[in-house]
């Protein structure tokens, strides 16, 4: 079985080497980098199954890196920071971190959190097992991750594709916000998290720009979302 690759973005060389040894001894492959700009480029290559991300980084801080990364990728991210205050943890989770670990941390707990997140991230399967759905000129192909409107392809990010697929494959069914967060963003719904609303707004706009009715993606207040 191929080893799981972990990207470690940490500017403290001593801590980075310690974590790399810990992870490698636990059976992971580890790639290290020491600043935010390099870390973002490596993360965007999508060659890693998990990212350990320090919050305080030179060139590009961890929260900014995560916000940019979440525009195109849902790779599991654990944010690691010396700042363990509740507002810091909420900030990291709000911007898309799957978990938040404060320094100093228990190494066994960190390994267990990594295992838990990797189990969740590999558990997603589309609600509809067919490769393609076509409705009124809109065609989604999950094998190719492609979206066409009347034979014209629209560029969607992986998150936007997964969100649209999840709703279209359950046509006329109200999908709860909590279920969408788990299926699309691979995380639990947070009290102040509006990530899904942001992504849904962008999906609607792209469909409207392609002369397809984005308004068919409806918000059902207090219940969730529905594709009519």
Order of helices and strands: EHEHEHEHEHEEEEHHHEE
Overall mean pLDDT stands at: 84
The helix tally amounts to 8
Low-confidence stretches: 123-129
Overall structural class, as computed from helix and strand content, comes to alpha/beta
Shape, principal axes of CA atoms: elongated
Briefly summarize what is shown.
This protein has 228 residues and is α/β, with parallel strands linked by helices. It contains eight helices and eleven strands. Helix content is 39%, strand content 21%.
Structural write-up:
The structure is a single chain. α2 (about 35-45) packs parallel to α3. By secondary structure, the chain is an alpha/beta fold. The protein has 8 helices and 11 strands. The strands form 3 sheets. It has a 5-stranded parallel β-sheet with strand order 2-1-3-4-5, sandwiched between helices. β8 and β9 (about 150-155) form a beta hairpin.
Helices and strands in order:
Layout: E1 5-9, H1 13-25, E2 29-33, H2 36-44, E3 50-54, H3 62-69, E4 77-81, H4 86-94, E5 99-102, H5 107-121, E6 132-135, E7 138-141, E8 146-149, E9 152-154, H6 158-168, H7 177-185, H8 195-209, E10 217-220, E11 224-227
Parallel strand pairs: 1-2, 1-3, 3-4, 4-5
Antiparallel strand pairs: 6-7, 7-8, 8-9, 10-11
List keywords for this structure.
four-stranded antiparallel β-sheet, 8 helices, 11 strands, alpha/beta, 228 residues, five-stranded parallel β-sheet
